[in-house]
Hints:
- The protein is an alpha+beta fold and 160 residues long.
- It has 6 helices and 7 strands.
- Helix 2 (28-41) crosses helix 4 (64-74).
- The longest helix is centred in the N-terminal third of the chain and has 14 residues, at 28-41.
- Mean pLDDT is 65; it is low at 99-153.
- It comes from Candidatus Termititenax persephonae.
Amino acid sequence: KAVWALVEELLPGTLWVAPSLAATKITWYDAVRKCIELTHAAIEVSATVKADMTAKGYTASASDSNCIAYQDTYAPGRKKVYRLLTDAEWMECYNTGKLNSHSQREWVGDAYDSSNRVMRHYDYLNSANQYYAYAPPANSSTSNGGGVTGNIGFRLARIV
Length: 160
């Protein structure tokens, strides 16, 4: 919750996030598919936008390449379209110094590495390495050498 309060503080009125949107144990691609599914289900999204999404292959069963295209080129900047937060948005939250230890360990969807689609989170064991990549998105749990850190999850957002 601290992260979302901070995002709202930094970008007032631009992001809407509900706790009920949380999903866990999914890949990066599954998280993007969930964004697409929620966008199609949203009554405030126009039929024209939904038809355009369907024509481009942005459906609940989108291919991995369509998930990448949706997250990187289609969703950014579009109002009412669900997407994962960008690496820059997460870094801005972190760099304010307002995140508590619980929020710092929250998993994020990282669109920065579009070729590997890596999972990232704050490395609380090594503050010099503020964010580090764990594993490709095909894994639903990962290990950092000190044990399994499973239950990777994402939170979704959209511009309203």
